[in-house]
Amino acid sequence: MTEEEKAIESAKKYACKGCIKKCEQLDLLCGGARYYMNAFMDGYDQAKADCLIERREEENKHLRSIVDMAEEPRKAITLEGANLTSSNVKVGDRFYIEELTVKATGSFEEINLENVPVIAVDVRKDGVLFNFENILFRHCIDEDYVKSGDFEETELGGYLKNAFRNALVKAIGVDVKDCSLLTKEQVFEDLEYFKSRKNRIKVLNDDSDIWWWWLKSPYASNSTAFCYVFSDGYSYYYDASLSTGGVAPAFLITRD
Fold first, then answer.
1. What residue spans define the domains of the chain?
2. pLDDT at 246 (0 to 100)
3. What's 187's DSSP letter?
4. Residue whose C-alpha is closest to residue 76's, from 102, 112, 115, 120
5. Contacts of 213 (CB under 8 A, 6+ apart)
6. pTM of the model
7. What is the pLDDT of residues 32-78, one digit of tens each?
8. What is the reported pLDDT for 20?
9. What distance in Å separates the CA atoms of residue 215 and residue 128, rounded to the nearest whole number?
10. Residue 83: half-sphere exposure toward Cβ, Cα within 13 Å
């Protein structure tokens, strides 16, 4: 038996067994096998294989939780008055935007989504910071990004703080502050919610696959790259012009 055949045989036991029905919905039955096979690209490495399997199992758990979300009570995001208090909103609470429509503008396609989940990732004295649980769309940060430029002045930054924010305010009926991306510091240092790696793993809005998502932090002051969260929940960086980057905006709702 060749090393590749051994890898395939070993990988079979990592295909989800107790959750086959749910995994079929998410096209994950061969996910364990794919990850296990990656460990054999440069020869057999059991340690690397085990590490990859551990990561994939965490991702599978997160994706299965997305399926389970369909059965939970849907709490609409109408955070006004007494609803926006620390006693009613906790870090990790999930709310739903019943309908989100953003008209096409420039290179950004139209968005038409229903029951869009957002997570309260930080509850402050002055308000609540929310982050879209799933990736809404994919886009570059800016095709012509200039080194050391401000994210808010990039193509994506401008879209989020203007067209997207205006549509979001209309959708939830509440004023929105700081509609943008999260920073690397928020995701990997400051916010307790993201201390758990599974909370840093996101899927596309149709739940079809895990995907990487942009952060607003430049990789370096003299670089055209921005940081992002890879599908394994760890930090990496890509050039700002890469058009396949996932976008999961964050926004702040303040207390009056």
1. 3-69, 81-254
2. 96
3. I
4. 115
5. 135, 202, 228, 229, 245, 246, 247, 248
6. 0.73
7. 444 444 444 445 455 555 565 566 666 666 655 654 554 565 565 55
8. 34
9. 19
10. 10
